[in-house]
Amino acid sequence: MKFLDLAKVYIRSGSGGGGAVSFRREKYIEYGGPDGGDGGRGGDVIVETVDGLNTLIDFRYQQHFFAKNGQHGMGKQRTGKDGDDIILRVPVGTEVLDEDEETVLADMTELGQRFVLAKGGNGGFGNLHFKSSTNQAPRRANPGQAGVERTIWLRLKLIADAGLLGLPNAGKSTFLAATSNARPKIADYPFTTLHPNLGVVGVDNAEFVIADIPGLIAGASEGRGIGDRFLGHVERCSVLLHLVDGTSDDIVADYETIIGELEAYGGHLADKPRVTALNKIDALDEEECSEKRQALEKASGARVYEMSGVARDGVTEVLRALRSEISEDRLRQKTALEEPEAWKP
Q: What is the per-residue DSSP string for 139-200?
């Protein structure tokens, strides 16, 4: 399934049905009076989170969603039928934005959550509503209220507990493949990862979700490379894992490049807890590895872990550091499979 995390959608709620002008006309009934019914209410446009979706690809093939109009009122005091609602089914983690792409209308973070994007118009009153002692034969009825038409944006932000950051070819996809059952594309050229990947990792009888996003380069906030729009997928993470390529000639510059892009992106992303790891230590000797780790610790002002995604050295320590920054309510505890009882006659 192709990954799509941004979609433009046009919606319109249903208009209300008009009220009816009608009079009761039956044999032997001299004064029938007005009996025009009310119009039905127009349908709403609703967005709902459902299970089993992880992309907005459905909205590439259908961008227009129009709810049904309400039926007009009829004689014999018959009210028109209400228009059917239309539901936009989206994955958990979808943000609904206004046409300016900045104003957040709804943040759909829970399964089964619903939000009314456009309310249907009310139905008009029939002439029965206007009957009074001084006007016993009204010949007026209200038209139905018009529906609401608007343009919205749907933006998906994946729900993950930890996010991977780093320059292209820093070893993010290799780390995800080594620690989970995810199988992201891995190759020896930049920008191998073109869309986010998720993987469930386990350590110390607990499981959490890691998100791998395409690599950042200097100037990503200005649109260079793939840009920084994929950073939205790690906004909801509790902790970020910053992988630095140990084989780089200037690891401090690489580290500062990523931090600069986080600060340029804005929001609270740069303030999130971070775990920094020097990756690909299997390609370094002990002296070179120690020098680069010390230089990186001086630049970051925090502990730097040594690891190798390919050789799986130091991976467990990094996972434990990530786990310590994730709240217990977000962790999923592993449950051991119970042994089935022996059959007894």
A: ---PPPPPPPEEEEEEEE----SEEEE-STTSSHHHHHHHHSS------SSS----S-EEEE
Question: Measured in Å, how far apart are the chain's first and last C-alpha atoms?
Answer: 50
Question: What is the residue whose two structure tokens read 């507990």?
Answer: 161
- The residue type found at 268 is H
Kindly report, residue by residue over 283-340, the tens digit of the pLDDT: 888 888 888 889 998 888 888 898 888 888 888 898 988 888 888 766 765 544 444 5
Q: Which residues contact 279 (CB under 8 A, 6 or more apart)?
A: 166, 170, 171, 175, 243, 244, 245, 246, 307, 308, 309
Length of the chain counted residue by residue: 345
**Dist. CA 333–CA 225, nearest whole Å:** 38
Question: What does the block give as tokens for 58?
Answer: 């459905």
Global pTM?
0.76
